Amino acid sequence: MIRLSLSLLSLFGAAAAAYQPLLVQSEPQVIFKDDVKVPVTLGVMSRCPDALLCESVFDHVLKRVANKVDLSLTFIGTPNASEPNFGVTCMHGPEECAGNVQELCVMKYAPAEHFWEFVQCQNYQGREKIGLPETALQCANSAKIDWEGSGAGTCTGLDGSGKAAEGVQLLQDSVKATRELGIQKSCTIMINGKQVCIHDGTWKQCENGHSVHDFVRQINEEYRKLNSETDGDDD
Ligand SMILES: *[C@@H]1O[C@H](CO)[C@@H](O)[C@H](O)[C@H]1NC(C)=O
């Protein structure tokens, strides 16, 4: 047995090391009928390194609890009437504003899993490509988003510019909503309305941990709370 465990460990090597917290968790996944999903909100800026890191961590989180979560992005920026295209100043420049608009439009019009694939695709291109029209079009294609038919294209600008009226309005609304949530740093993680963690250079204010395992556990806890009232009540 010992020999087997050791050879398994060496077989899986780096993967086992990286995913160790996941391997030891064996909790059964209870899904309720007509369940309430746990709102998870990431306060981000599309070209921010901290945002890319959080979104990569949550890619792993979603692999465990995708069907329990309602994930959304909310964007950090400064309302600014002097900004010609967006009416918002984005810390990493107008390309970031465009990237934010692209992600907001896809979030609004594409199915959740396609939206997430779109964000991961943008991030995978590298920060300096996020927000470029060709990146948006390419990622819409690879995430199997019907650019013209779904509404995402019209919202963003069919050319991918991020400058169409609807998308710009979504950006301005998102920036306002972010402020109302009290979010100032990218990336800020909120689970079921509570700020649970920030990554700003390093992890900060993460009382209940900041590993994939920690976020999965917190989501499972909130899911149980949100759905316990009806547990066993209806036929
Ligand atoms: C508002 O936008 C203008 C035009 O881009 C810029 O020069 C100015 O610095 C911005 N103000 C703030 C507070 O970001």
TrEMBL record:
PANTHER family: GAMMA-INTERFERON INDUCIBLE LYSOSOMAL THIOL REDUCTASE GILT (PTHR13234), GAMMA-INTERFERON-INDUCIBLE LYSOSOMAL THIOL REDUCTASE (PTHR13234:SF8). The lineage of its organism: Eukaryota, Fungi, Dikarya, Basidiomycota, Agaricomycotina. Its main location: secreted. One of its GO terms (cellular component) is extracellular region. Belongs to the GILT family. GO terms for molecular function: oxidoreductase activity, acting on a sulfur group of donors, disulfide as acceptor. Residues 1-17 form the signal peptide. It is found in: Secreted. Keywords: Glycoprotein, Secreted, Signal. This is Gamma interferon inducible lysosomal thiol reductase. InterPro entries: Interferon-induced_GILT.
